[in-house]
Every structure is written in C-alpha cells, then in structure tokens.
Write a structure and sequence with these properties.
Blueprint lengths: L9 E6 L4 H15 L5 E8 L3 H11 L3 E4 L2 H5 L6 E4 L3 H9 L5 E4 L7 H9 L3 E4 L2 H18 L3 E3 L2 H9 L8 E8 L9 H5 L3 H4 L9 H9 L1 H14 L6 E5 L5 E7 L4 E5 L5 H9 L34 H8 L3 H17 L5 H14 L8 H20 L1 H4 L4
Helix pairs in contact: 1-12, 4-5, 5-6, 6-11, 6-14, 10-14, 11-13, 14-15, 14-16, 15-16
The structure holds nicotinamide-adenine-dinucleotide and magnesium ion.
C-alpha cells in the first residue's frame, strides 16, 4: 500500500459523534488540522440525543448533514441545513450523504450501529470500526460484503488496532495465535461474592480506560473481552482456537501476535483511544500523534496473569458463539445489551448480567444467516427472551 496522496481533504462521516469515541475522534481531526498533517471534510454526524452537542460539533466543523435518532431532540436542532430523525436516522444520513471512498467512523454503541455500517460498506466507504457489536452480531454478513466492495475495514478497538499493526510483521499463514490483553477491569482482585453484587458506581469506575457506560460495564464483566474475541475472529479471519486472552492490568500492551517461529510481536502505548483512532484515520500513514507517549524514565512494570474464568464466566462464551455460528452472535450481543441496560437501571445484580446472557443463549434457537433480516429477527427474539426472564421471579429474587 502506497502512501495516500492527500491533496484534497478526505470526506469523513462520524456515526456516534457525541460519545467517548466520537468526541475523541473529533479531537484527533482537530489535531491533524491544526498541525496541517491531514485534512478531513466532516460531511455528516450521527448521534442518539444531545442535539445541543451535535449542533455545536456541526458548527465547529461546518457539517451540513446531521442525524439524531431521538425525534424530540432532533426537532430542537437549529442551524443545520439537513436533519435526519428517527431510529434509522444514521442510516438515512448514510443513504443521503455517503459516497464511494468516504471514510465512515462507526462509533455508535450496540447493534443500533449495524444498518448504517452495512449501508456505508454497500456505498463503497472505508470503515473505521469502533462499534464491535456490528461484527459480533453480523460478522458473517459484514466481512464478505467488505471483500465484495473492496473497502477497508480499519479497527479502532485498541486490541484490534494492536493486532492489525502486529500482523504487519509477518504473513497471515505465519500466524500461530492472537493474544488479546484485558485490563481485568475494576473487579480483577475482588472475591467472587463481591463481584456478584458490585454496584453501578463501582462498575463504572474503570482503572485504566475512560469510556461510555455500556463498554465500561462490559469491561468489568469481561463480556467486552468476549465481544472482542469474536470481533478478532471476524476481522482477522482466524479460528477461535487460535485466539487467547491474558490479563494485563496496566493496559500498555494492547495485544500480541505470536508467529509460528515463536516470535511474539506486541504493540504498546499509554491507554488513550486517540492513538488507535488516529491510526485508523491516517492509515496507511503514521502521523505525529496527540495522545500521551510512553515515558520510559518513570515506567514501572508490565504484569500478566491468566483470566479467572470462575469469577468472570462471560469470557468463555465467546468460543461457544464462534463455534456455533449462525445467529448466535446476534443473540449473544442483544442479550448482553438488554442485561447491561437492566443493570444500569438497577433492576438486576451485576452477576445476573452474565447469567441472563447464558440463559438467553440456551433458550433462543440459532439459525443460519442469509441476510440482515435473519440477524434482526435473532436480535429481537433475544431481547424478548431477556425481557421475559427479567419479569420472572428468578431474576427479581436476585436483585441487589
Ligand atoms: P458512548 O455511549 O460514549 O457513545 C455512543 C454514541 O452512539 C453516542 O454518540 C450516541 O449518541 C450514539 N448512538 C447511540 N445509539 C444511536 C442510534 N440509534 N443512532 C445514532 N447514534 C446513536 O459509547 P463509546 O464508549 O463511544 O463506544 C462506542 C462504540 O465503540 C461501542 O461499540 C464500544 O464498544 C466501542 N469502543 C469504545 C471504546 C472506548 O474507549 N469508549 C473502546 C473500544 C471500542
Ligand atoms: Mg478494546
């Protein structure tokens, strides 16, 4: 791949612009503009609510097309010529604005990001993907579509950005194993019964990363790592048995690739999402960054330890999902989304999240996937099943 000629700005659409990844991405774009390193023309923004924030972003970057899923919030938007509203607002935005060769940042949380991402790929856009739920639920559709359209799918998730970078050290046939690192989350050293009944506040207090609420809860249960194992399987076309996970509390080594000759290549940087976001935006180039860099003078130690699957049973489900295939990823993901919302709404205990996902996986039939409707039906069935379980006395008896 040759260095991209950057004579004209690159058109960029941000899906999920008001979130943790979205705002970090805009900070990276501003940094690249200020330093005259790379120019983007931000042509579309999408968010769920927070129209005042989106309006401010649109003004700051001269964006004329904005999608806000919440109809009432969209109605309060002023000063933007084109506003798209409703549950499918992000999809409407892509259909109206995206052109072949644009870059679309997928940073919506949850499977809500799936239709717009698929539409962007169909339009011939490159995707910088943070929205891991898209691949977990629908990797079986997304990856063949990426290949058919000849677009680039660039990982933003720090572990996958690391693996993407490490893989450049060898051929895919020379890869023995991908090793994803996990911080272990806030409950890494807690006993099982304390983890089981962790509060929302304790769960949202992540030791190394500052992120949106859903991914922070997922990090605490290690469900995030399960989602990431599935994401890695799809992104790098690698079987489940060649993916493993190690706990690394400092979140400095973002992942490893082991090659067949025994060599291990790792990627290191301080835990700041601006680094992988910038690499996805500037790829195949590396440009001066705006994130903190390693300070080797004050640097401490790097620790690694195995995952305790008894205290964190969520992780093990990833291999079951990959091996089962079909709609199992969509069921797994949707069940987790509903369970996390129920936990954040203080309806269930922390430990119940993983149990609800497991019970939903047992209850909802897995079918082969031929199109997006199969994924959406599985997603709906899983959400309904968790809803039923939430109403049941079994769940209410475990309330904290
Ligand atoms: P967040 O909750 O901070 O932000 C989510 C964004 O999505 C917001 O802008 C919200 O308005 C938007 N959104 C939600 N539903 C929408 C809808 N239906 N239509 C349009 N916009 C909608 O979440 P986040 O932490 O930025 O994470 C976003 C994604 O990136 C998630 O999939 C997460 O797993 C992934 N990710 C995040 C981090 C991180 O450091 N935050 C790291 C790796 C991966
Ligand atoms: Mg990650």
């Amino acid at each position: 791949m040759t260095t991209r000629q950057r004579t004209s700005p690159r058109r960029l659409i941000l899906l999920g612009s008001t979130g943790s990844i979205g705002t970090n991405a805009l900070a990276v774009v501003e940094h690249l503009h200020e330093r005259k390193l790379m120019r983007f023309d931000v042509v579309g923004l999408a968010a769920a609510t927070r129209s005042a924030v989106v309006a401010e972003q649109a003004k700051r970057f001269g964006v004329e097309h904005v999608a806000v899923a919440d109809g009432e919030a969209a109605a309060t938007l002023t000063g933007v010529p084109h506003v798209y509203a409703g549950a499918d607002a992000a999809l409407q935005l892509i259909e109206a604005v995206a052109r072949p060769g644009d870059l679309v940042l997928g940073a919506i949380v949850g499977s809500a990001g799936l239709p717009a991402t698929i539409a962007a790929i169909e339009k011939g856009c490159d995707i910088a993907l943070a929205n891991k739920e898209t691949l977990v639920a629908a990797g079986v559709l997304v990856m063949p579509l990426v290949r058919k359209q000849g677009v680039h799918l660039l990982p933003v998730d720090s572990e996958h950005s690391a693996i993407f970078q490490c893989l450049q050290a060898g051929r895919s046939s020379e890869v023995k194993r991908l090793v994803l690192t996990a911080s272990g989350g806030p409950f890494r050293t807690w006993p099982a019964d304390r983890v089981e009944h962790a509060t929302v506040e304790e769960t949202l207090d992540h030791p190394t990363w500052s992120m949106g609420p859903k991914v922070t809860v997922d990090s605490a249960s290690l469900m995030n790592k399960a989602l990431e194992v599935i994401e890695a399987h799809w992104l790098f076309d690698i079987p489940a048995r060649q993916i493993s996970v190690v706990v690394h509390p400092q979140s400095i080594v973002h992942s490893f690739v082991e090659f067949v000759d025994g060599s291990v290549v790792a990627q290191l940087s301080p835990p700041d999402m601006k680094s992988p976001i910038q690499y996805a935006l500037s790829w195949p180039d590396r440009l001066d960054g705006c994130a903190a860099t390693m300070d080797w003078q004050t640097f401490g130690s790097l620790d690694f330890e195995p995952v305790d699957h008894d205290r964190f049973p969520a992780l093990g489900m990833a291999w079951r999902v990959i091996e089962t295939g079909g709609t199992s990823g969509a069921i797994f993901n949707a069940a987790n989304e509903v369970a996390v919302t129920a936990f954040l709404d203080r309806r269930i205990s922390f430990g119940m999240i993983t149990q609800l996902v497991e019970r939903t996986m047992d209850a909802v039939d897995v079918v082969p996937v031929t199109d997006l409707a199969d994924i959406q039906r599985a997603d709906t069935a899983a959400r309904a099943e968790v809803g039923r379980l939430l109403e049941s006395s079994l769940v209410s008896s475990t309330l904290p």
